[in-house]
Amino acid sequence: MAELKNDRYLRALLKQPVDRTPIWMMRQAGRYLPEYKATRAEAGDFMSLCKNQDLACEVTLQPLRRYDLDAAILFSDILTVPDAMGLGLYFETGEGPRFERPTDTIDAIKKLSIPDPEDELGYVMRAVSTIRRELKGEVPLIGFSGSPWTLATYMVEGGSSKTFEKIKKMAYEEPATLHLLLDKLADSVILYLNAQVANGAQALMIFDSWGGALSHHAYREFSLRYMQKIVDGLTRHADGRQVPVTLFTKGGGLWLEAMADTGCDALGLDWTVDIGDARRRVGERVALQGNMDPSVLYASPERIHQEVEQILASYGEGTGHVFNLGHGIHQHVNPEHAGAFINSVHELSKQYHK
Amino acid sequence: MAELKNDRYLRALLKQPVDRTPIWMMRQAGRYLPEYKATRAEAGDFMSLCKNQDLACEVTLQPLRRYDLDAAILFSDILTVPDAMGLGLYFETGEGPRFERPTDTIDAIKKLSIPDPEDELGYVMRAVSTIRRELKGEVPLIGFSGSPWTLATYMVEGGSSKTFEKIKKMAYEEPATLHLLLDKLADSVILYLNAQVANGAQALMIFDSWGGALSHHAYREFSLRYMQKIVDGLTRHADGRQVPVTLFTKGGGLWLEAMADTGCDALGLDWTVDIGDARRRVGERVALQGNMDPSVLYASPERIHQEVEQILASYGEGTGHVFNLGHGIHQHVNPEHAGAFINSVHELSKQYHK
C-alpha cells in the first residue's frame, strides 16, 4: 500500500496537531458535478453505478480531481446491507429508495440472515479495494454504513417515510420484534464495516439519518444502543494506524453527551448546533465534524467565506475539527461555489493551528 | 361572556396551582375523527371549512364532546395570513398547501400589504367569536398563528419544501429582502392575533413549524427575532385575565433559553427533548407544553399509559406543565386510543399536584 501523503483528516479525528482544518463534503461525489452525471448516465441506474467497481471508483475520485479535499469517501448507498439481506432495493424516480419485500413482521425478521460481506456485499469490497489502490495514498478513504435504526426504518416502512408510522408502532407495541431486527442489523454492520477496513478503508462513519425522528428515550433504546454495539465490535486499527469512527445522528444535537459515551472518536454535527457549544459539551472526549448548512452554498463566495469564518471562530483554536457540511451537498449547488467553500476553509483555518 | 368554568390550562401556563395537569392535543379537530371527516365533506374543501364560521365552530367543538379536554383551539390554517395578502392559497391532494402567486422577489414583497384582520381575515374573527360563544365558558379558547419565518417559507417556496432552497438562498444572498417580508409578516401577525383576542381568544400560540430547519445563527436572525417582535406587540390581557402566549419551534430543543428570553409565557416542546431537562433549563421562566411523540398513540392503551407516566415523572411535581403531543395528532390514530391517552393524563397527573 502507498504511504499516506495527507493524513490531516485522520490526525484531526484523533486530536493530533494539524497545519489547517481538514475538509471533505458529505455526498461530495454527487449530482452537483456534471462529470458525476455523465458517469451515472453511463452506468444506467444508481445501483449499477454502486455495483461497478471501476465506475464507483471513478465517481469517488472525481471531486478529488476538482478540489483540494482531505478525504475520499466510498461511493455506495446506505441500503446495500438490507438489499444483501434479500429485500430487493430499487429506486423510483422522485420517490427515493423502495424495497420489494419490506420486513414488517416477526416472521420476516426471523428469516433474515446476516450477509457475508465478501459474498453478497463483495461488490462493495471490490469498490473499496479499487478506490484505495487508485487513491495512491493521496488522502485517506472513509468507509461507511447506515445505522441499524436508519436501515430498519426503510426495511419496515418499505421506503422513505415522513411519520415512520409502521416502525414507531413496532417500537411501541412490539419492541422485542424491533430489537431482533436491530440486533441482526448491528451484527451485519459490524461485519460489513470490518470488511471495509480489511479491504482498505482507513476511517469509518455511521450515518444515523433518522435517529432525530425518535424521542430522547426511544433514541437511546432503538438507535444509540445499536451504534454502541457496533462501536464495540469494530476493528479500530489497520496498517499500524488507528481507524477513527465518526457517528452522525441528524437532528441529534441534544444527545451529544450520550453519543460521546459510546467511545467513538468523533461526532458529526448538523447546522442546528453551535459547534463551539458542542466543543464545550463533549470536545474533551471526541472530535467534531461539521457543520455548515449546505444551503449556504447557494449564496455568493463572499457570503460562504463569512459563514466559514464564523464556524471556525466558534470552534476556536486547536485540532479536533473536521470541516464539513451539516448534511449532504444539494444537487443544485454550483460546483464553483463548492470550490470557493473549500478554498475558504483552507485559507481561513491556518490561523487556528499555530 | 360566560364565566370560565375550567381554567386549568390558563393557570398552568401562568404557573398558578392546578388540581391536575391540563391537556389538549395539537390538531385535536382533525381527520382521525369520523365526525370531522363528515363535516369536512359537507363543507367541500378544507378552506371552505375554515371560512364557514358555523362549520369551523362545529369541528372545534367535536373533540370536546368526545373527550375531557382542558382547552379548545380555533379551527383554522396557519396560511390564512399570506392568503389574505393575496397569494391565492389552494390545496392539492397529497401535495399540501400551494400558493398561486409566490412572493420570491423584492418587488413582489414590496407590494404586499398588511391585511386588515376584520376585513380580509374577517371570517377568522367570526369563527373566533362564534366558537367563544358556543363554548359557553366550558374551557378557554386558544387563538394561533404561524410564525413569520414559517409563513415566509411557504410564500417564497410556493408551497411545502424539504430543502427550503429558495428561501435559504434569499436568507444568505438577499437578507434585506427576507427581512422586509418577515417584518411585514410580524406586523400582520400582531394585528391578526390581537384581533383574535378582541374577538374572544383567551390564550395565543405561535407555531414555528420550520424554524428547526435553520442554523442556530439563522434561527435567531430570521425566526426568533420576529417572534420576539410579536410577543412585544401582543395584547396580553383581556376580560380582566392574562392572555398567555406559547411559542413552539419544532426541532428547537437546543434553543429553549433564547426562546424563553422573548418574555413569552410558555414553550411548546417536541419529543426530542426530555421535559425534565427542559424544566431545569428554563422552567423558572416559562411553562412547558408537551411532549409525547404522537406515534405513541398507535400503541396500546397500556403502552400509552406508561409513556404518559414517564413524561409526568420527568416533569415532576407542581404546576407549569400543559400536557400535549409533541406535534399534531396523526390521521390514522384510533380515536379510542386518543381517549385512553387523555384519561391517563387525568388519572396519573393528580399525584403531582398536591
TrEMBL record, chains A, B:
Keyword Chaperone appears in the UniProt entry: no
Keyword Lyase appears in the UniProt entry: yes
GO MF: uroporphyrinogen decarboxylase activity
Domain Uroporphyrinogen decarboxylase (URO-D), chain residue ranges per copy: 22-31, 142-158
Main localization category: cytoplasm
Localisation: Cytoplasm
GO biological process annotation, one example: protoporphyrinogen IX biosynthetic process from glutamate
Gene Ontology, cellular component aspect: cytosol
Swiss-Prot/TrEMBL site (Transition state stabilizer) positions: D77
Pathway: Porphyrin-containing compound metabolism; protoporphyrin-IX biosynthesis; coproporphyrinogen-III from 5-aminolevulinate: step 4/4
Catalyses which reaction(s): uroporphyrinogen III + 4 H(+) = coproporphyrinogen III + 4 CO2
EC number, UniProt record: 4.1.1.37
Binding site for substrate: R27, Q28, A29, G30, R31, D77, Y154, S209, H327
Keywords of the record: Cytoplasm, Decarboxylase, Lyase, Porphyrin biosynthesis
Subunit structure: Homodimer.
Record-stated family: Belongs to the uroporphyrinogen decarboxylase family.
PANTHER family in the cross-refs: METHYLTETRAHYDROFOLATE:HOMOCYSTEINE METHYLTRANSFERASE RELATED (PTHR21091), UROPORPHYRINOGEN DECARBOXYLASE (PTHR21091:SF169)
UniProt function note: Catalyzes the decarboxylation of four acetate groups of uroporphyrinogen-III to yield coproporphyrinogen-III.
UniProt name for this protein: Uroporphyrinogen decarboxylase
Species for this entry: Shewanella gelidii
The gene coding this protein: hemE
